[in-house]
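Retro notes
What went well: the complex prediction finally ran end to end.
Inputs used:
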Amino acid sequence: MAASIPDDIFFASITEINQKLKAKEFSAVELAKAFCGRLEQLGPRYNALALSLRDKAVKAAKDVDGDLKRERYRGPLQGIPFGAKDLLAYAKHPTTWGAKPYAGQVFDYDATVLKKLIKGGGILAGKLAMVELAGGPSYRYASASLTGPGLNPWDPTRWSGGSSSGSGIAVAAGLVTYALGSETSGSILTPAAFCGVTGLRPTYGLVSRHGAMALSWTLDKIGPLCRSAEDCGLVLHEIAGADGEDPASAGKSFYYAPQFARDLKEVKVGFAPIDFAEWADPAGRPDFAKAIETVRSLGVQLVETKLPEFPYGPVIGTIISSEASSIFEPLIQSGNVDQLADQKQIAGLKAGLEITAKDYLKAMRIRSLMQEGMRTLFDDIDVLLAPSRLAPAPKITQPLDRPSSDRPTPKERGLTALIPAGNLAGLPALSLPCGFADGMPIAIQLVGRPFSENLLLTLGKFFQEKTDWHKRRPGASEPRA
Amino acid sequence: MSQERETRNEKRETKLTRRELALAVSTSAVLLAQAPAPLPSNPDEELKAVKDAIQQTSQQLAKFDLPMSTEPAVHFRA
């Protein structure tokens, strides 16, 4: 580690680091070298690192130092080291998609989001590990990755969550200040929740996916995992916007503006008490209960609600499987699909080719009704509140498609299907650390109307002004060699 | 472009009344918790298990009645 960089900087916010860079407490080169050293040293121990980009990072940091010397300020992300999930193309460097068949893949262009961050003076320190093919249609084990199971910095015998595994780990362990991940159905919210960091899933179409691996054209989103809601706002501000290279681009920009937030007394937050009292892991219920009270103390109106009744699981499963198997048809037909690490994912990709047009269209037609149902729900409610995940991170050997508890299933579903429902409707979501269960982080999610990121981020900012869960760091436990 | 999209959404929304939506929603079955099957022990069993699951999913989708006017959640633009 560079001696001039205090340890606290590895866990500092974007704004804090940016101020120190401007105050010349350390240079961007010193900062980049320190973060790259930490990423190279600890990243592999957590199976979080796909590729170190030290040389490029230091070169970019030299340019930032030159800019700062001339007082050319490019924004809050200038000089801040970050990581990117290895499904984002970075020209002339391997982009593996976390999968053995693509281990040697190299693109000759940068993903739009990387171009934007680098243009703003961001320092790309490394590509971060991920579940192979972002999880494909489904996978059974945490080991479904070219780099092995993502080990949780809070307890390396437990999983980091996926598919943006390395992104969650790297932020939690202070290997980068923020990271980019992607979500098709839960791949930002899950690692954010399991690793105790703040994660933002933007509205579908707000952030360009050009240069990102496609898993599902109608569901994929790119978003940040950060130390705080405020940091998520700063990153989204930079990466959002229209892009003619992404056919799903909504053509909208995003300006992070918490100063223009609505009076929270006018904001109605819907939640289902059964989610927190009966569905949630018993060890997490005390902190979940406190989180509800903290949200209430912000002055919002808390009202009970539930999701409209739809077969969310079958619908999202059919859509992801159909689209993923179509996208990866060449991989499947070539036989190289058998090189993947997870047998369930291999089988899922093969079988997905046999899903009928009838079923895909049925799922997409039900999805239309779901969107209408969610719009109706949001006629009376501004934000939905639920646990991000009902239980903390499982052991890395636990089959992910098997229940880890034999507790009886509650009678009402509440908002437990909010991850598939929110993704199917393209809604934004923010995951906020809210406590611990069995020593592992737990989190709440806030979900809003399309393009309501500023409201979610404002609520998140106020929540984090009243709590310090997002400032907690993993203990001294180190992964076994 | 976004304004055009919003207009399209408004048009689509008008095709479905609240009554139709309520009817469609009321026909969806709550998924019942089922005891998990044993883990497949080889690739052939795995493939069969996934195909069986796809078949079950297909049956669940088939049970969901849809108004004839409901279009899929995709937008073709000329």
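What we learned: The interface with chain A takes residues 1-2, 5, 12-13, 16, 18, 21, 24-26, 28-31, 33, 36, 39-40, 43, 46-47, 49-51, 54, 57-58, 60-62, 64, 66, 70-74 of chain B (CB under 8 Å).
What to try next: split runs per interface for comparison.
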